[in-house]
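step=predict obj=Sugar transporter SWEET1 n=194
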Amino acid sequence: SDLRQMLATKSVENIQFLPFLTTDANNLSWLGYGCLKQDWTLITVNIVGAALQTLYILAYLYYSPAKGPVLLQSLLLLAVLAAGYSYFTLLIGDAQMRLARLGLFCSVFTISMYLSPLADLAKIVRSKSTQCLSFPLTVTTFLASTSWTLYGLQLHDLYIMVPNMPGVVTSVLRFWLFWRYPPGQERPYRPLHA
């Protein structure tokens, strides 16, 4: 829906860039984990996810009036991914050790990605407005993190299961915020005290 909004308005106003950049990095990291583990579910889902996130990034870059910061953040992400790829392929020779370290890296990255929307929590409570949150992204995050938690549970893979649990919890918290401060209830003015 955010991509549809960008295409319709030809603007990136009220759309956050960083969550989609980090999701792209997350997809690419899990793609590497899936390739090492030879898990076609992880590979397929993360190829599709990375392609969609890259499309979003390109659309955001195209419609953004301030292209410099967007391009700089994207290039920084590519540099971090290249450094990570070099580390995991050149410095860690043992395949099991590589899988464990990449799994741990992906887990920490996923947890930080799921916890990042909480940075806006104080702003939301103070303003009593969920305008800075994306409801479709919240629904998608809830469904994805729940699915991956159950998939990790089924495989007995803690690297998949554990980092997705915070996604379930933070999504439920965001649903509560949408319920507590419904969109459209924001006041564009401060009430006058008599």
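step=describe
The chain has a mean pLDDT of 86.
step=end
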